[in-house]
C-alpha cells in the first residue's frame, strides 16, 4: 500500500521571477519503507520533505497522502494529519526551552483528538528511547543525543504512520548520531515508515532506498544493495 | 479546556523567564485599573459627603436667596447676576413681609430669615473677625442644630431686640478656652451681647464653618448693629416634599408680588429663566441633583482620562506580546508541525495577553482599594463625613476592562502568530 504518492510535483517561490525548489518530482513510498532523501545543501530536499510532511503545499502536481489528495484539504485538516499521522524530527531538536522532557514529549497530545492514557503513553515512549530517567529534567539539562531522542519520542507520541527526520544527526557527535539512526531502524522494524533527509552517504545507506535530488530534480531512486544495520557501538561517520 | 490550561501554564512559564518585561507590561494595566477603582470610590465618597451635608441642612428645606436681577435670560443672565454681585451690588428687597407671607403658605411648616455679615467681636480686649449668623429662633429647629451649653435665643427675644448671643463651639474655644462663657459679655461692633449658649460642634457645610460663627437674633442685628431691614436668605421647611415644586412656585409668586416684579411673558422652563427676579428659590433636593449631575460629568471626564491611561497600558501589553511572539517563533513553528491549528496558536497567545491584563487588573484593583481606603482615612480624620465604599460597578468595569483590553491588544500579535508560515517559523533565527 502506498502511503505517499506524488506525481509531477513542483514547488516554486516568487510570483514574477519564479525560483524552482522542486521540479516535477514523481515517486511513491510504501507503508513500512525506510527511505533516505539525499542531496547537497540547497538541492531542494528540505522543500521536498516539507511538502511531503504537509508543512508546505506544492505549487503544481498531485500528492496523495494515504490515498487522499492533499490539495483538497484545508489548513485545519492538514494540521490534524500532521498531528495524527506524521512525526517530525529536526536537526536542531526544536524542544521547548525551560520545559521538562515529559512535557516536551506530551506536546502533540495537547492538539490530539485522542488524549487517552496520555501520561502512560509518554512514559512508555520515553522508556522506548531509554530516557525514563530523564523524565523530569528540563531540556537544557540534557545532552544533545538525549535531546534528539526526546524529539523522536515526541514524534512518536500519537503513533504516526510516517516519521520525517530532517538531518537528525547533523547536530550530534557520531556516537549519539548512531544511537539516533539505530532507533529509527528499530522503529522501521516495528512497521513505521521512515523518511530520512540527509546529505551524508553513510547515513543514507542505513535506509532501504535512497532518493537523490539535485537542483530540485530527482536524479536517482535506488534500493540500497546492502542496508547497513547499526548498533550503538558502530561509528558511521 | 485542556488547551486553555496548558496555555496558562505556558504563559506563566514565559512570564517567569522574563520577569521585568512582564512586570512592566502588568504595571501599565495596573495603573489604569487602579484609577478606575479610585474614580468610582471617590464618587461614592463625594456622594456620601453631599448626602451628609444635605442631611444636616435638611432635605425638606427650600430657600429663597437674593440675586441681582439681570436683563438677560438663562445662563447669560446668571452670569450677569454673578458679575454684578462681584462688583459689590447689593439687593435689599427681601424683607420680613416676605417671611411672614411665606410662613402663611399651607405647605410651609416653619421658616426663618437670615442675615449674614462679617464683624469684629471683642471679649476682654481680644479681637476676632467672625461671621455673624443672624436668624430668627426657628433656625435651631429647621437646621437641626443642637445647643451644647445654655440655650438658643427665643422668638420673644428676637422680637424684643434682646442683645443675646450664642457662640459656635470653635469661637467659644478661642475666646474662653475651658472656662464657662455663659452670662459673659461680648461686643459686636461695640454693641454688648450677653452669651446665653454654645452650639454643638457641627463642622463645615458647603464651605461654611458653622463652629466659627456667632448666632444672634436677626432683628437685634438688623436694628441695633447694622441698621438694615432686609434678609439675604429665607429658609422654609416644608410639610410635604411631594408638593415642593408647587410650594416653590407659590413662594416665587408671593415674592414677585411683594417686590412688584411682573412675571416674564414666556413660560419659565428652568430655575435659570428668572431674569428679572431679585431672588432665587432653590430646594436642597435641586441643589443635590445639580451636584450629582456635576459629579456625573466629572466622573465621565475622569473615566475618559483613565481610558486613555488604559490604552497606553494596552499598547504596552501589545508591544510585549509582539516581542513574545517574535521570540517564540520557532516554538510556534514546532507547534504547527505537531498539529496545532491556527486557532490553537491564536488562543494560546490571547490567553497570555489576557493573563497579563487580568493580573494587572487584580493588582490594580487591590492598589485602588488601598488608595481609596487611604483617602477615606485622610478625609475622615480631617473631619469630612466620607464613606469608604467601592461600588460593584467598579469591580465589574475593572474586570471587564482587563479582559477586553487583553483581547483587544493581544489580538494582533496573536493573529500574527497564528498566521505564521510553519516552515518560516521553524527556521526563524537559523
Return the domain count of chain B: 2
Radius of gyration of chain A: 17 Å
The oligomeric status of these chains comes to heterodimer
Number of domains in the coordinates of chain A?
Answer: 1
Task: Give the strand tally of chain A.
Answer: 10
Gyration radius of chain B, to the nearest Å?
32 Å
Helix content of chain A: 25-40%
CATH topology group of chain A: Rossmann fold
Spatial separation of the terminal alpha carbons of chain A: 34 Å
The coarse silhouette of chain B is elongated
Strand content of chain A: 25-35%
The major pleated sheet of chain A works out as: 6 strands, mixed
User: Tell me about the biggest sheet of chain B?
Assistant: 6 strands, mixed, barrel
SSE arrangement of chain A, N to C: EEEHEEHEHHHEHEHEE
Strand order of the largest sheet of chain A: 6-7-8-3-9-10
Please provide a written account of the structure.
The complex is a heterodimer of chains A (about 240) and B (about 425). Chain A is α/β, with parallel strands linked by helices. Chain A has one domain (about 30-55, about 85-225): P-loop containing nucleotide triphosphate hydrolases (Rossmann fold). Chain A is about 30% helix and about 25% strand. Chain A has seven helices and ten strands. Chain A has helices spanning about 45-50, 75-85, 100-110, 120-130, 145-155, 175-190, 200-205, and strands spanning about 1-15, 20-30, 35-40, 60-65, 70, 85-90, 160-165, 195-200, 210-215, 215-225. In chain A, the strands form two sheets. Chain A has a six-stranded mixed beta sheet, with helices on both faces. In chain A, helix 6 links the parallel strand 7 (about 160-165) and strand 8. In chain A, helix 3 (about 100-110) packs across helix 4, helix 3 (about 100-110) packs parallel to helix 5 and helix 5 runs parallel beside helix 6 (about 175-190). Chain A is globular and about 50 Å long. Chain B has about 425 residues and is an alpha+beta fold. Chain B has helices at about 1-15, 20-55, 75-85, 95-105, 140, 155-160, 170-175, 220-225, 245-260, 285-325, 330-335, 340-380, 390-420, 420-425; strands at about 60-65, 110-125, 125-135, 145-150, 165, 185-190, 190-200, 205, 210, 215, 235-240, 280-285. In chain B, helix 1 (about 1-15) crosses helix 12 and helix 2 (about 20-55) packs antiparallel against helix 13 (about 390-420). The interface of A and B includes residues 50, 79 and 154 of A.
Amino acid at each position: 500500500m502506498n502511503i505517499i504518492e506524488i506525481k509531477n510535483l513542483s514547488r516554486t517561490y516568487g510570483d514574477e521571477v519564479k525560483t524552482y525548489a522542486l521540479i516535477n518530482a514523481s515517486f511513491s513510498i510504501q507503508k513500512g519503507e525506510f527511505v533516505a532523501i539525499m542531496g547537497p545543501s540547497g538541492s531542494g530536499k528540505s522543500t521536498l520533505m516539507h511538502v511531503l510532511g504537509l508543512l508546505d503545499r506544492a505549487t503544481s502536481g498531485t500528492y496523495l497522502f494515504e490515498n487522499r489528495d492533499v490539495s483538497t484539504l484545508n489548513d485545519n485538516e492538514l494540521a490534524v494529519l500532521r498531528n495524527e499521522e506524521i512525526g517530525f524530527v529536526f536537526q536542531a531538536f526544536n524542544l521547548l526551552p525551560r520545559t521538562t522532557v515529559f512535557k516536551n514529549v506530551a506536546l502533540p497530545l495537547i492538539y490530539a483528538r485522542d488524549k487517552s492514557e496520555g501520561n502512560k503513553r509518554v512514559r512508555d515512549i520515553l522508556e522506548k528511547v531509554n530516557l525514563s530517567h530523564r523524565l523530569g529534567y528540563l531540556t537544557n539539562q540534557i545532552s544533545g543525543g538525549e535531546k534528539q531522542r526526546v524529539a523522536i519520542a515526541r514524534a512518536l507520541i500519537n503513533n504516526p504512520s510516517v516519521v520525517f527526520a530532517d538531518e537528525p544527526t547533523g547536530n550530534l557527535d557520531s556516537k549519539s548520531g548512531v544511537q539516533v539512526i539505530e532507533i529509527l531502524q528499530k522503529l522501521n522494524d516495528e512497521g513505521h515508515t521512515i523518511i530520512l533527509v540527509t546529505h551524508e552517504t553513510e547515513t543514507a545507506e542505513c535506509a532501504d532506498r535512497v532518493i537523490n535530488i539535485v537542483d530540485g530534480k530527482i536524479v536517482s531512486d535506488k534500493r540500497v544493495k546492502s542496508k547497513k544495520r547499526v548498533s550503538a557501538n558502530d561509528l558511521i561517520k | 479546556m485542556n488547551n486553555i490550561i496548558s496555555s496558562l501554564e505556558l504563559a506563566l512559564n514565559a512570564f517567569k523567564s522574563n520577569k521585568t518585561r512582564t512586570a512592566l507590561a502588568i504595571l501599565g494595566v495596573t495603573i489604569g485599573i487602579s484609577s478606575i477603582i479610585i474614580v468610582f470610590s471617590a464618587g461614592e465618597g463625594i456622594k456620601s459627603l453631599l448626602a451628609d451635608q444635605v442631611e444636616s441642612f435638611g432635605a425638606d428645606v427650600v430657600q429663597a436667596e437674593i440675586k441681582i436681577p439681570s436683563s438677560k435670560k438663562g445662563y447669560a443672565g446668571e452670569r450677569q447676576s454673578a458679575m454684578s454681585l462681584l462688583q459689590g451690588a447689593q439687593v435689599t428687597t427681601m424683607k420680613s413681609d416676605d417671611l411672614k407671607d411665606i410662613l402663611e403658605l399651607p405647605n410651609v411648616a416653619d421658616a426663618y430669615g437670615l442675615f449674614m455679615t462679617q464683624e469684629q467681636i471683642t471679649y476682654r480686649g481680644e479681637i476676632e473677625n467672625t461671621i455673624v449668623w443672624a436668624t430668627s429662633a426657628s433656625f435651631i429647629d429647621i437646621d437641626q442644630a443642637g445647643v451644647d451649653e445654655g440655650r438658643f435665643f427665643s422668638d420673644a427675644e428676637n422680637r424684643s431686640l434682646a442683645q443675646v448671643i450664642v457662640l459656635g463651639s470653635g469661637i467659644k474655644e478661642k475666646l474662653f478656652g475651658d472656662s464657662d462663657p455663659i452670662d459673659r459679655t461680648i461686643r459686636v461692633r461695640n454693641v454688648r451681647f450677653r452669651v446665653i449658649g454654645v452650639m454643638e460642634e457641627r463642622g463645615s457645610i458647603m464651605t461654611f464653618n458653622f463652629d466659627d460663627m456667632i448666632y444672634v437674633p436677626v432683628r437685634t442685628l438688623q436694628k441695633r448693629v447694622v441698621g438694615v431691614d432686609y434678609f439675604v436668605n429665607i429658609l422654609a421647611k416644608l410639610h410635604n416634599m411631594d408638593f415642593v415644586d408647587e410650594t416653590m412656585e407659590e413662594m416665587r409668586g408671593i415674592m414677585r408680588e411683594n417686590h412688584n416684579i411682573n412675571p416674564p411673558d414666556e413660560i419659565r422652563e428652568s430655575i435659570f429663566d428668572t431674569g428679572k427676579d431679585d431672588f432665587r428659590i432653590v430646594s436642597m433636593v435641586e441643589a443635590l441633583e445639580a451636584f450629582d449631575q456635576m459629579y456625573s460629568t466629572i466622573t465621565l471626564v475622569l473615566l475618559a482620562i483613565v481610558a486613555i491611561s488604559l490604552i497606553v497600558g494596552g499598547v504596552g501589553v501589545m508591544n510585549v506580546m509582539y516581542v513574545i511572539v517574535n521570540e517564540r517563533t520557532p516554538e510556534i513553528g514546532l507547534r504547527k508541525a505537531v498539529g496545532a491549528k491556527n486557532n490553537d496558536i491564536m488562543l494560546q497567545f490571547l490567553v497570555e495577553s489576557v493573563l497579563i491584563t487580568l493580573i494587572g487588573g487584580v493588582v490594580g484593583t487591590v492598589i485602588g482599594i488601598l488608595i481609596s481606603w487611604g483617602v477615606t482615612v485622610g478625609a475622615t480624620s480631617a473631619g469630612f463625613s466620607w464613606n469608604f465604599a467601592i461600588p460593584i460597578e467598579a469591580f465589574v468595569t475593572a474586570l471587564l476592562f482587563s479582559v477586553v483590553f487583553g483581547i483587544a491588544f493581544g489580538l494582533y500579535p496573536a493573529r500574527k502568530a497564528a498566521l505564521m508560515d510553519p516552515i518560516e517559523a521553524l527556521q526563524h533565527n537559523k
